[in-house]
Design goal:
By secondary structure, the chain is mostly beta strands. Helices cover about 15% and strands about 40% of the residues.
């Protein structure tokens, strides 16, 4: 048996080392994440593949969540990938509240530390509005629905974000399971940041050429 494994290693070591390097890279440095669902529309679409920078905030032991060193702090407006224990799955959301912030929402109007966000309607149809939400030093597009059934999730707080935790929302405010449902997100569950779409396929698996390498804001 030992002779067999020794021969197998000699014949396949280059391939096995390459495979190990790819797995290590995906675990500790960077990866792709598939977007499934509508919770981050209009910023992200179902079928997008986004780049995940796993060294954006922390260095961790490969294949684990064991913390080794901090590189930077998550910032307001960052699109983050979360290994959510509360949800039992991976989430992609936007950081809205930082540790120490007091968050208050009424009818989708966001107020942080007593300061309301500014809103501008970009476009509308029979079912939804695309708006620009501006807050402090950043702005981004979001979506709100005209459907009455979604209005129970439009209010939150006021609550203060605990130390080393974050308040996250989906850009599709009326169709997102986020901190309004799962509460605040511990930093330890944030595994990376995304700043671009690598490629995208529509519901018919055809490429969306305009989204290849598109920057996220």
């Amino acid at each position: 048996m030992t002779r067999y494994f020794s021969a197998f290693w000699r014949e396949n070591r280059k391939f096995l080392l390459l495979l190990l390097s790819i797995v290590f890279f995906k675990s500790a440095i960077a990866d792709l994440n598939s977007i499934s669902g509508e919770s981050m529309q209009p910023t992200l679409l179902d079928g997008d593949k986004v780049w995940v920078n796993k060294l954006a905030y922390d260095i961790r032991v490969p294949f684990t969540h064991i913390f080794l060193a901090s590189l930077s702090d998550p910032e307001r407006g960052d699109i983050v990938i979360i290994d959510s224990e509360a949800a039992g799955k991976r989430l992609v959301k936007r950081i809205v509240g930082l540790p120490g912030d007091t968050i208050y929402m009424r009818n989708n109007t966001l107020v942080i530390n007593g300061q309301p966000a500014d809103y501008e309607v970009i476009s509308s149809d029979d079912e939804s509005l695309i708006i620009r939400e501006s807050f402090f030093d950043y702005s981004h597009q979001a979506m709100v629905s005209d459907a009455l059934g979604h209005r129970l999730s439009r209010s939150f707080g006021p609550e203060t974000v605990p130390e080393d935790q974050f308040f996250v929302l989906g850009d599709n405010r009326d169709n997102s399971a986020d901190s309004r449902l799962y509460s605040f997100i511990p930093r330890s569950q944030i595994i990376g940041r995304s700043s671009s779409v690598v490629f995208s396929l529509d519901s018919n698996y055809l490429p969306r050429a305009d989204r290849f390498l598109a920057e996220l804001r």
